[in-house]
Amino acid sequence: MQNFVLNLSNEGVTLTAYLPDYSPEMPYLDKRKAILVIPGGAYKFCSDREAEPIAFAFMGKGYAAFILRYSLNENSAFPRPLDDAVEAMRIIREHAQEWKIDPERIAAIGFSAGGHLCAALSTMGEERPNAQILGYPCILEKIGAILAAPIPGLDTEVDEKTPPAFIFASAEDNCVPIVNSLKYAETLDEHKIPFEMHIFSKGWHGFSLADSTVYGNKDEVEYNEDCAAWFDMCIKWLNIIF
Questions:
Q1: Which residues are registered as beta bridge partners of 242?
Q2: Beta carbons within 10 angstroms of residue 98's beta carbon
Q3: Distance between CA atoms of 120 and 139, rounded to whole angstroms?
Q4: With contact defined as beta carbons under 8 Å apart, do 110 and 139 qualify?
Q5: Which residue in 37, 39, 79, 162 has the most C-beta neighbors within 10 A?
Q6: What's the start-to-end Cα distance of the chain, in Å?
Q7: Which residues of 200-209 are buried (b: 16+ CB within 10 A; e: fewer)?
Q8: pLDDT 10s digits, 95-146
Q9: Is 84 exposed, middle or buried (0-12, 13-18, 19+ CB in 10 A)?
Q10: CB contact burial 56-80 (16+ within 10 A = b; e otherwise)
């Protein structure tokens, strides 16, 4: 595996790459699918448990993985984080042949505030992913009250170029209410953009993979365990989309 970190244009912004080695024993992986991972953290930090664990989970399914650590805090006003995400997507596509990636099978996944950035990339970006995956995403403009800076509402930004979406969240989320996911899905439906959505009845905000790879607290694992189903459902969905 190749692992390296690229410094992007904005100060402190990085793109970490995890590129599985090519083997002639698996020739069908000559052009791998890729995933751009965008952690959450209220635009104040990038959550570690929504970064490497997510990248490694997708690598286990044959993906090349990239983690974007984007502009935060005093640098988080839009469009700066969106510029980071667009630059990351552009770099991945520009190096697709060198990195043995299929440029038409690149998905982006974001969680919470990272879900907002992922959806912004998918609706407003000059360089968009081929599929978007949103975990308990911030979508509505009013949710910016709990973030580091005001955000554009993305329920009004969906257009005909918006890629298909996979959305998952918890009905019990008292940090980012599920109305964010529901409004976004409603707008996708209005524009006839394909999507799949799963709202779990139980689960705390920030459940990530919802298993022991991201938790140090057994109670958290047990409480959120049903939410872990999102990953396998997402892989099945991506296999259809791609």
A1: none
A2: 8
A3: 9
A4: no
A5: 37
A6: 23
A7: beebbbbbbb
A8: 999 999 999 999 999 999 999 999 999 999 999 999 999 999 999 999 999 9
A9: buried
A10: ebbbeeebbbbbbbbbbeebbebee
Strands (DSSP E) contained in the chain are 2-7, 14-19, 32-38, 64-69, 101-111, 131-135, 165-170, 195-200
Residue boundaries of the structural domains of the chain? 2-241
What are residue 181's phi and psi, to 5 degrees? Answer: -65, -40
Count of C-beta atoms within a 10 Å radius of residue 21: 9
The residues facing 168 across adjacent strands are: 135, 198
> What one-letter code names the amino acid at 156?
T
Region 2-241: CATH code = 3.40.50.1820
In total, the chain counts a number of residues equal to: 242
As a whole number, the mean pLDDT across the chain is: 96
DSSP state of 31: S
The upper half-sphere exposure of residue 166, i.e. CA atoms within 13 Å in the direction of its Cβ, equals 21
Residue 53: CB atoms within 10 A of its CB come to: 16
Q: Which two tokens stand for residue 43?
A: 């635009």
β-strand 2-7 against 165-170: which pairing, if any? unpaired
